[in-house]
Amino acid sequence: MQNSWNQGYYTDLEVYDGYTHELSPLNIDLNLTIAGFDCDSSLEYTESKGTNHRKYRHFISKHYKDFSQDSIESSLKNKGDSIESNSQEDSKNSNNIKSKLGNLEDSTNLTPTHHPINENNIESKLGNSQDSHIKDSKNSNLSPTHRPSKENTLSPTHHPIIKNKKPNKIGSLKPYKYLELGFGKGTSLNVHAASSLATFIGNDFNPAQALYARTFGRASGADIKIYDDSFAELESRLDSTIGVDAPDFKKFDYIVLHGVFSWINKENQEIILRIIRKYLKLGGVVYNGYNCLPGWASKMPARHIFALYNQFAHDAPFDRITNCVTFFEKLLACEPMFSKLNPQNLDFLEQMKNLPNSQKSYIAHEYLNADWEIFYFSDMVKLLDKAKLSFLCSGKVIEHFEEFSITAEGVAFLNTIDNKIFREQLKDYFINRQFRVDLFARAMRRISIFEAREKLLNTKFMLTRLKSEFDFKADTARGVIDLMRDRYENLLEILASSAYQPKSLREIITLSRLTFPQAMSSIMVLIHQGMASVAQDVNAAILSQTRAYNAFLFKEQSMRLSSLYVASPVAACAVVMSESEQIFAKAYNELCERDATFASFLAENSGVENNLVELFSALESSVVASLESGVLDSNNRASLESNLDSIALDSIAFSPRLKIDSNNKETLISYLTQYVFAAFKPQDRKHVKNGQILESDSENLAEIKRLATQFIESKLTLYTALAIC
């Protein structure tokens, strides 16, 4: 008998945080553009159903060249051909569309010692010629409330020439409305709200998580509302605040469900479908992440045992997470026939046993919930059809490159399938997929290959991690593959140049001398590996919101262990920063603000000059004294911070930067070291190095100093480009 609101339902964990990038509207728009769709509901729509997908595939093939095993083998045999030869061929055939889009035959990113994958298959990148990529529409940054000029409308009777007055790219600032159902800790929801001009609503029926998310939402000042309603209560709330008959501009452009459908009962599934049917605007997108078959088939018996153990055991709820694994191990040790016929359960057991303690709650989330349903993709399509939704494409950029996941023979076989749903379902058998991220829409306007290409060329990209952190490998459904080192070294060097500032795909192609498909596919690999992101335009409001969000996060991190996800207004996504790095950023930003305040007040308010000079003298004395004594005077620092809190800072321009040179770098590193040590010491927070906890103060100081040096010498430039510092 369930006598508690959350009995049998486990969500108090960070399983959602790893998906912040997939939930980003920028990422959604990128997927839509690759697949040949636009997410602007103010334009004319082509209803998703009934599209002649085979005809569309032939159109793409005509302009982008069919993928074939022969072209890959040719590419591998001739991988030594110079890029210059491609450019010369392009110039000779300037009127040839294939040449304009780049030579596809020298396109693989793989070394010849690994199975060939043609990542430059433009069919995969800009709308796979297969049914699965005919409709894609969830993550666009384009707001359905935007009213384009007539010049933006493309005539189907001639090759379009793009003459947009407004920026034709991903990353233009657009207002939109975004609803997330089941947001976990709310990290993704808050980061995306802080880095946008949009209206966000989040709902999670766990009140503790709703309160946690609301705290961060209020800190940023973004347009965000957080509720802990049941789905039925949320439907009633929307009925009263928006209304079923409301005009489209009041409805949602995005409705996001990550892992929700797999862990709710039929009744709640129907309520969600009603919410989507009533409050997703025409042309709006639904992001749906869910467990799927056939990938889960081998684990379902084990999951049933876990669930029964959770139901009948008498351990404390948290202990059941570990004890159910121990129980399953004892069961398999008895060698039941089930185990003999399904030896993969031994591998599954080892995976569960080897999970680090920080991820043990994953077991509860995935296996111990009261409601748990696994879907075939085709069944999910039927279910969402009740809300007038049609499948568009995957929400993961790497999924547009089928050769990463499926053999050439498999792709050739799939290309014989006309029905897009049947084809997409078969892909799951090739991959043995167990989790899908799909984009559905209530109709979606298709764009031409030319328009998609132009939009991508104008789109800016940037690194979100240091170029030195890339290992020249890619994780795919076919395993880990080695990438062409020369190509990626060149690309990373370009993206890291000019202090990591964003660069358009057009600029990248010019500088790298790669073809369009080569550059495009390589950047998608970097995004898939968490190395890069689309970059958006930034204005004063967004900058102010993300600064406020990060300032609150950094303050929380200095007092207790908090989230590792920091908001970047430029990448419009969450960037992972360690606890120490966040406090380094806090200390550095404070020094920047003090320096800016000092300079501006000296210039504009001579009457307070003496006070400011005195204040900064005290600051310098405090830092020097702390460095000499080895202990930072936290009380003195708190007093200084209190005095500075009343001084208003300019929130429009990017933060001023300290001028770091050889004379003051070591002093700054020492200051950051002492700052972090002073925050961690009273809390008994200790660093870990090579798997070992550092116990002594001297060991911790040495490790913090090493990290501070890395922060100043390497990472600060990147974090500045991301507008975090």
From TrEMBL:
Pfam families assigned: MethyTransf_Reg
Its recorded name reads Methyltransferase domain-containing protein
* UniProt entry tagged with the keyword Transferase: yes
Q: Polar residues bias located where?
A: 83-98, 105-131, 139-156
Q: Which GO terms describe its biological process?
A: methylation
Molecular function terms, GO-annotated: methyltransferase activity
Q: For the region Disordered, give the residue spans.
A: 71-168
* Lineage top rank: taxon: Bacteria
The residues covered by the Methyltransferase regulatory domain are: 360-442
Record keywords, A-Z:
Methyltransferase, Transferase
Question: Where does this protein come from, organism-wise?
Answer: Helicobacter saguini
